[in-house]
Give the backbone structure.
Amino acid sequence: MSASIPARTFRRGLAAATAVASLTVFTAACGDSGSTDAGGENKTFTIGLANADTTIPFLASMNSAFEAEAKRLGMKTVTLNGGLDNAKQAANVETLVARHVDLILVCSSSPTAVIPAIKQANRAGIPVMALNAQLSPGADLVTYIGASDFQYGQGEGKLIVQALPKGGKIAIELGPLGDTPQVERLKGIKDVLKSHHDIKIVATPVDNFKNSENLSVTQDLLSKYPKGKLDAIVAEGPEMYVGAQYARKVGRNEIRFIAGDYSKQVEAAITSGALYGTVNQSPVLEGKLGAQYAKYWLTGQKDKVKQPNYYIPLPLITKDNVDADPAEWSG
């Protein structure tokens, strides 16, 4: 959720729920912290992930990658589902503090709601990293791991310019209003378009990163703007494949569609030509890096942790390179 979430974007894919547990998930025995020998050299670390919502496909994929990598590195994990509820997400951070985990990763749908809880972790001496979604200042963080939503938006802006070399009128379907991915991605798009005066934004409806709303919003746009009146529709999340496929069914092939994030459904839509392209934010990479950075920090390899941010690469995917770069997740 990204992002995009977005989406940190969420960074991304508010589609049908996957079969990921919506409550506390343990990938190993559920002790409050790892065991250690007398010298502390063979300690088994326990790291906690306060996730915004483990049922969102993008975040579920990130979750799975995080847990698998942590297990590979010999660590235990505790993952808590925030259910996109700000109060619950904050409470989950407090729960991880109470369990005395060795390090906490926070993926929050609000840049501010979890700050007081993170301050509790700071007072308890538990290091905290932000994952997937950047947080506002106010608490001590080791680092942020994930996409720059501004750069993500710039990527979508570049795709718009590529898709419309002669300019045109576009609509941008926004994520949840006020969320970091929605705000920063729109800024990034506008940053690119400010030097392309022949491309005009004529509408900015909201699809809330939901497939059903993307379809409804796209249908409204196609009704409001008949052929010749709209040249492209861009979504801040991956849901755009739904609207793009609908447009193709009703013969609106003159419109270019651009998505954000890169699910298998988006990949298929690019391959078929329904979508022009997307920005690839990898949930698998984010999850793996979260576990790796936790291990580095806890084992004294702090020089390997990029601070204050590690922005992951955001390659652009179009029909030219879709076959060489397959999608990692579904939703």
